[in-house]
Write a structure and sequence with these properties.
By secondary structure, the chain is mainly alpha-helical. The protein is built from 15 helices and two strands.
Length: 341
């Protein structure tokens, strides 16, 4: 995050061609924010970062104060009790609530309709304003004094320095653009790949076979061109493959599917493993070992196919089971906090 902020401030200070550093800085800062949120904060909520309750709690509270996300105690409680338990992918799961209410996606909608609605929301100033307000409220309501202190000291201090130096452009452009709209776009796309909805004819809703089948890994990339292609077609295929790897898959990995989110299925099988930092290799080792006690691993290739898989599962899900009218009692303040699940 510090490197991204430095790049953005340099671009604004020197102007001209140096302004190209601003979007590069946004990307670096956003990547840092998302890793901090999706890896560090997440593992702290499982008391799994340093496996010391006091230290993990202190890091979690500092993170929520910096990023202005759902306060640590509330997140930890809801994440473990509703998302990693029997209520996984039910109306009590924050992920499901975010889909049905915040994104306004429902069973029976087509994949195309869902894409249009999600992309429309990510481009909507009203959506981002509501999202930002809800983030701030879900942070402040019920947060510990230390969390509030971190937030107030950081942002009041930044405002004071900015006012004294007249560098409001740097603060607003370099820090708040990745913190608010870009963070929220990344958050929304990440939400759309997390878990598939259970099939309506699935009668057994418990056990490892069921829970293991609701999460897929996401492999970022695609098959290389076949060696048997004629030379000209092979060269064109390699150019296309290279461009897609550089311009499609790399940004998806760097800006949306950061950290261990690509193997979220492994996390749901072993949420408290001390080997979480070796996530990709541990998943592969478990796969090669036959994943004892769990169903076979599944995966999608690429961000868009992974989102399509989730959208298709919601499209055919039971409309009675996932009836949004049954969620009217959910506080609007908490709806966008569900994105941080």
């Amino acid at each position: 995050m510090a490197l991204g902020v430095a790049a953005g401030c340099t671009g604004i200070a020197f102007g001209g061609a140096w302004l190209l550093l601003v979007p590069a800085g946004w990307a670096i800062t956003l990547h840092g924010m998302r890793n901090l949120r999706m890896m560090i904060y997440h593992q702290c909520s499982h008391r799994n970062m340093y496996r010391t309750r006091r230290l993990d709690t202190a890091i979690g509270r500092a993170t929520s104060g910096l990023l202005v996300i759902q306060n640590f105690e509330r997140y930890s409680r809801e994440h473990v009790s509703d998302h990693h338990a029997a209520h996984h992918m039910t109306l009590r799961d924050p992920t499901v609530q975010a889909f049905l209410i915040s994104l306004d996606l429902h069973p029976g909608m087509t994949r195309r309709q869902m894409w249009r609605r999600v992309l429309g929301k990510t481009l909507s100033p009203w959506f981002h304003l509501n999202f930002a307000i809800a983030r701030a409220r879900s942070f402040w309501s019920g947060s510990a004094r230390s969390e509030k202190a971190v937030c107030v000291v950081l942002y009041a201090g930044a405002a004071a320095v900015t006012a004294a130096t007249g560098t409001w452009a740097q603060l607003l452009i370099v820090w708040f653009v990745p913190l608010v709209p870009l963070f929220q776009v990344s958050n929304t796309l990440r939400l759309c790949v997390k878990h598939t909805f259970p099939a309506p004819d699935l009668t057994v809703r418990r056990g490892k076979e069921y829970f293991g089948g609701l999460t897929n890994a996401i492999f970022i990339g695609e098959a290389a061109p076949a060696a048997a292609l004629p030379p000209v077609r092979r060269a064109a295929a390699w150019v296309r493959w290279s461009l897609r790897m550089l311009l499609v898959h790399a940004p998806a990995r760097y800006l949306v599917l950061t950290g261990d989110t690509v193997v979220h299925d492994f996390h749901h099988r072993y949420p408290s493993t001390p080997k979480w930092s070796n996530y990709i290799f541990e998943r592969q080792a478990d796969l090669e070992n036959g994943s004892p006690g769990w169903p076979p691993y599944k995966q999608a290739w690429g961000l868009v196919p992974a989102i399509n898989l989730v959208f298709d599962s919601l499209s055919v899900a039971d409309p009675k089971e996932f009836n949004v009218t049954r969620l009217r009692e959910v506080s609007k303040r908490e709806l966008f906090a569900a994105f941080d699940d």
